[in-house]
Specification:
Keywords: Amino-acid biosynthesis, Aromatic amino acid biosynthesis, Isomerase, Tryptophan biosynthesis. The chain has six helices and ten strands. It has 220 residues and is α/β, with parallel strands linked by helices. It has one domain: Aldolase class I (TIM Barrel), CATH 3.20.20. It is globular.
């Protein structure tokens, strides 16, 4: 039984403290310069120290080179690496071997056939993250867009697969998402913000409360 709640894209000590105080199991730091949630290595280092021993620290990378991976490990010392680009199964395995710590691969879902993309990664990663596919417009972020996919598509998922659900979750819909898809974990970024990159303390607390209650109900 996992029932993990991840708050992603934290970039200030104050909002990180709110997430930790509200009981987040995982906190995510984005290393992707085009994102409004990007943290420098220096800030990431400080935030990671603040979270040490209180929650699992996740570093989010997008199609990183070896040097990007090494710098993130050195500065943030994460408990888990989230790969949120178009990394192949071979590249994911290479990074996992390099970092010698758990890796979570994000996959975009828009239609039933997208679930087939899971198979080549199964066995080679520690966790799968299912997110909506990014919008097709130029310059769109590969994630963190606040877009949900049709959760009913997961009716066709092999239930042996343990996954984290993300994409457009917020305090109002996370309970329904957990009830319908029965994920092992949930992840949110823009749904707990008041504007791009601006985490909202009340929304973080409301999300964690709603997710915790829904996970508890799912086991009755
Ligand atoms: O949060 C970002 O800025 C980000 C940038 C690049 C790739 C992924 C990103 N975030 C991840 O996207 C999903 C969905 O986010 P949202 O809740 O829909 O905003 C989530 O897993 C974030 O970790």
């Amino acid at each position: 039984m996992d029932n993990l709640i991840k708050i992603c894209g934290l970039s200030t000590p104050e909002t990180l403290d709110v997430a930790l105080g509200a009981g987040a199991d995982m906190v995510g730091f984005v290393r992707f310069p085009k994102s409004p949630r990007h943290v420098s290595l220096d800030l990431g280092h400080k935030l990671s120290l603040q979270a040490r021993g209180r929650a699992q620290r996740v570093v989010l990378l997008v199609n990183p080179g070896d040097e990007d991976v090494a710098q993130a490990i050195e500065a943030l010392n994460p408990d888990l690496i989230q790969l949120h680009g178009s990394e192949s199964p071979e590249r994911v395995a290479e990074i996992r071997t390099m970092v010698k710590r758990p890796v979570m691969k994000a996959l975009g879902i828009a239609e039933a056939s997208d679930l087939q993309a899971l198979q080549p990664y199964a066995g080679g990663v520690d966790r799968i993250l299912l997110d909506a596919k990014p919008p097709r417009r130029a310059g769109a972020l590969p994630g963190g867009n606040g877009i949900a996919f049709d959760w009913r598509l997961l009716n066709g998922l092999d239930r042996k697969v343990s996954f984290m659900l993300s994409g457009g979750l917020d305090p109002d819909n996370v309970a329904e998402a957990i009830r319908l898809t029965k994920p092992q974990a949930v992840d949110v970024s823009s749904g707990v913000e008041s504007g791009p990159g601006l985490k909202d303390p009340a929304r973080i607390e409301a999300f964690i409360r709603a997710a915790r209650t829904a996970f508890a109900a799912a086991h009755h």
